[in-house]
Amino acid sequence: MDEEEKPPKNIDEFLANVIIMSIVWSIGAILEETARPKFHEYMLDLIKGENLIETYQIDMMYNYEPRPIAAKLLDCQTIFDLCYDEKKQVWQNWMMTVPPYKVP
Asked: Is 2 within the bounds of a domain?
């Protein structure tokens, strides 16, 4: 195991973060630029445990009980600025994962 890698302390929190990351970087990736702010708001409301049925007037065929999701996102302009580092178990700006460009 890597020095920086650590086993999840709370598997529910770990899975919640990985799933949120997967949703943002898969479903969110196909959105037009103009739709991304609404998706950002929707995801933050989902994470906070807001009642999405009332807020977004969604017609659901099954019972839905809103509840907060254990995810500790950083303050950011948009959820698309973040990625979850599974090894360190922290959210970070994805630009920090890209090595600095060195002019050849």
From this structure: no
